[in-house]
Amino acid sequence: MIVFSIIAMVLLKKGDWKFFGFNKPGEMKYWKFFLKIIGIFIASLIIFSILFVGVLNHIFPKGEVTGFPEPDSYLEFILTVWIWSSLAEEIFCRGLLQSLLSNLKHIKFLRLSIPVIISGLFFGAMHLTLLNGNMGFWFVMFIVFNASVIGFVVAYYREKTGSLLIAFLIHFTANVVGYLPVFIKLLIA
Q1: Is residue 110 included in any domain, yes or no?
Q2: Confidence band of 189 (pLDDT split at 50, 70, 90)
Q3: Rounded to an integer, what distance in angstroms lies between the CA atom of residue 188 and that of residue 71?
Q4: Is residue 2 part of a domain?
Q5: Model pTM?
Q6: Torsion over CA: 154, 157, 162, 164 (sign)
Q7: How sure is the predictor about 27, in pLDDT bands with cuts at 50, 70 and 90?
Q8: Which of 57, 110, 153, 178 is 20 to 30 A from 45, alpha carbon to alpha carbon?
Q9: Which DSSP string do the residues of 117-185 spell out, in sequence order?
Q10: Cα–Cα distance for residue pair 168/186, rounded to 1 Å
């Protein structure tokens, strides 16, 4: 995904890296910022967990609600899921896709620009591939909707700061926050 994105960036804009978000974000109050996005992600986890895994799974059962399998190696999991996938998905979704749609950012719906909406929805839809895994349907829907919320937040701040770095940091933080319940469960067990 990273290789494809970088090749496309070179071919489409002659490697105008700043256009694709390869620059530093402006000044920010990072502690306040990260507390706010962590709050959004925790609220999203709670709301969509209740909705999909709790309510909809009981009304429309589709088999057992199984989550992510336990990783063989936590170091490998951290390197691949938390770091590598965050980097690859952000370079593709926010670096390539959202940048190519940036000429539409003057069109807004619910105070979000069209590039933010499309990028966020596309990011959520990418997680539909989890249906091919050994996970329950409603758990995957829970992940897809959470990923969409994360996608909107990341895309919004990518557009606001012009930087992929902030997009990566938000995505990474969301992956860590989303996986914390599993780590807590392992520590308690």
Answers
A1: yes
A2: low
A3: 17
A4: no
A5: 0.91
A6: negative
A7: confident
A8: 110
A9: HHHHHHHHHHGGGGGGSS--HHHHHHHHHHHHHHHHHHHHHHHHH--HHHHHHHHHHHHHHHHHHHHHH
A10: 27
Q: Which domain holds residue 116?
A: 30-188
* Segment 14-35 mean pLDDT: 88
Q: Is 86 helix (H, G, I), strand (E, B) or coil?
A: helix
113 and 103 in contact (C-beta within 8 Å)? Answer: no
* Residue type (1 letter), 160: K
Single-letter code of the amino acid located at 101: L
In angstroms, the CA 146 to CA 41 distance is: 8
pLDDT in tens, 103-137: 999 999 999 999 999 999 999 999 999 998 888 89
Q: Provide the β-strand partners of residue 108.
A: 113
Identify whether 138 is part of a domain. Answer: yes
